[in-house]
């Protein structure tokens, strides 16, 4: 049994590394691949190893996905807002520091997720009806607070509303997209337009500054505070239905400003993304509810004891942390690269990827999202209000207004 866990974890780490480093590919895709091949894989692996591979891939992905966000400025569903301060640090020559901070947050997330998952598993199921009822109100309160504290509440509300309508349009007609990587295919062009291409089009020009690592510029208090806040946010969205890492990133902006305290925000989102993975597993076992594609794939077979999958997740977290640090150290090779050429190359890659993964509809969503994503800078409000694309559909869904 232990050998199976180790083999499955190794496979999951490899798959999670691939999905984390390639924009547009998620651990959900890897879980779907394993599920589609399970008839063949079960000839060589036991079911526990297969389940361990799926969960280890998810945990590994939460560590590695910060790398393309930092060095290329390409977000995915888990790094939509974190890409802004991380890429900004990269343009200051501190990309490795940004990646190391995120990895540290994810590592703390692994540690904190175990007691949080145990508490939620044992205590919260009896209160689940009340929790389900309050999700929409929570998101409404967070969105309202963000708008009120904006430099220009009217423009903030407008950006939130327009991006929310774009999100509703995207999810309502998502069946028009090519679902090459599963049902989440439309998220890639939506978030890449709002937080990726729109940023790269207005980014600085010239040469990439030399990437040098001189240690983490974070106080112990910031590390502790950011880790705890991120863990709480990740636990909330991991346990509650309909929420995602992108929602956790938006929640964290009410407590940690990504523009005023970028390092603490990167650390907090790293912790949130990893805790979300573990809490999704706890919700599967406690409530028989699936929070992401990996949990859907796990529920399709016989579930092994949760403790075994938690062990696989912890082992994957340790290996993923070391792997992230190793890959981050290669940032020194980026020095003196022409930023303009790099930005346009990344934009071309994202456009091609959106068309390949979700077809012409994905291209349309990418174009509309890029247009909306350019507005915050023009009217001098923070880009966080573009998270209406995720928050408004989730809010309506929680109020019983279905978003097909």
TrEMBL record:
UniProt KW keywords: Membrane, Transmembrane, Transmembrane helix
Pfam family for this entry, one: TctA
Coiled coil location: none
Membrane spanning residue stretches: 30-59, 101-124, 130-149, 156-178, 184-203, 223-242, 265-287, 308-327, 347-372, 384-403
Protein's UniProt keywords contain Transmembrane helix: yes
Domain DUF112: 9-387
InterPro entries tied to this protein: DUF112_TM (IPR002823)
Family matches, as PANTHER family: INTEGRAL MEMBRANE PROTEIN
Protein name per the record: DUF112 domain-containing protein
Source organism per UniProt: Methanoculleus taiwanensis
């Amino acid at each position: 049994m232990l050998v199976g866990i180790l083999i499955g974890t190794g496979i999951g780490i490899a798959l999670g590394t691939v999905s984390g480093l390639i924009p547009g590919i998620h651990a959900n895709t890897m879980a779907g691949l394993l599920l589609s091949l399970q008839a063949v894989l079960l000839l060589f692996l036991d079911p526990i190893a297969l389940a361990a591979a799926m969960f280890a891939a998810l945990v590994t992905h939460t560590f590695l996905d910060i790398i393309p966000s930092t060095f290329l400025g390409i977000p995915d569903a888990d790094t939509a807002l974190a890409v802004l301060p991380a890429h900004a640090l990269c343009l200051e020559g501190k990309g490795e520091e940004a990646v190391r901070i995120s990895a540290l947050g994810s590592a703390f997330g692994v540690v904190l997720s175990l007691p949080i998952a145990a508490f939620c598993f044992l205590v919260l199921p009896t209160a689940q009806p009340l929790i389900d009822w309050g999700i929409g109100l929570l998101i409404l309160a967070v969105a309202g607070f963000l708008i009120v504290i904006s430099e220009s509440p009217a423009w903030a509300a407008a950006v939130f509303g327009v991006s929310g309508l774009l999100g509703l349009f995207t999810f309502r007609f998502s069946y028009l997209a090519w679902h090459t990587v599963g049902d989440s295919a439309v998220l890639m062009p939506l978030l890449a337009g709002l937080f990726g291409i729109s940023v790269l089009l207005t980014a600085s020009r010239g040469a990439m500054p030399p990437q040098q690592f001189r240690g983490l510029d974070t106080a112990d208090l910031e590390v502790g505070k950011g880790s705890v806040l991120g863990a709480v946010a990740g636990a909330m969205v991991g346990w509650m239905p309909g929420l995602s890492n992108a929602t956790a990133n938006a929640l964290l902006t009410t407590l940690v400003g990504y523009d005023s305290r970028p390092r603490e925000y990167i650390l907090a989102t790293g912790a949130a993304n990893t805790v979300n993975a573990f809490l999704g597993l706890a919700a599967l076992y406690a409530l028989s509810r699936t929070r992401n594609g990996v949990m859907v794939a796990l529920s399709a077979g016989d579930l092994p004891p949760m403790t075994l999958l938690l062990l696989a997740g912890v082992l994957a977290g340790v290996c993923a942390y070391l792997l992230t640090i190793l890959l981050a150290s290669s940032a020194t090779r980026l020095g003196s690269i022409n930023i303009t050429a790099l930005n346009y190359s990344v934009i071309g890659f994202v456009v091609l990827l959106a068309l390949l993964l979700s077809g012409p509809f994905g291209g349309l969503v990418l174009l509309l999202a890029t247009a909306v994503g350019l507005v915050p800078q023009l009217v001098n409000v923070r880009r966080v209000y573009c998270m209406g694309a995720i928050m408004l559909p989730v809010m309506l869904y929680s109020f019983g207004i279905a978003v097909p």
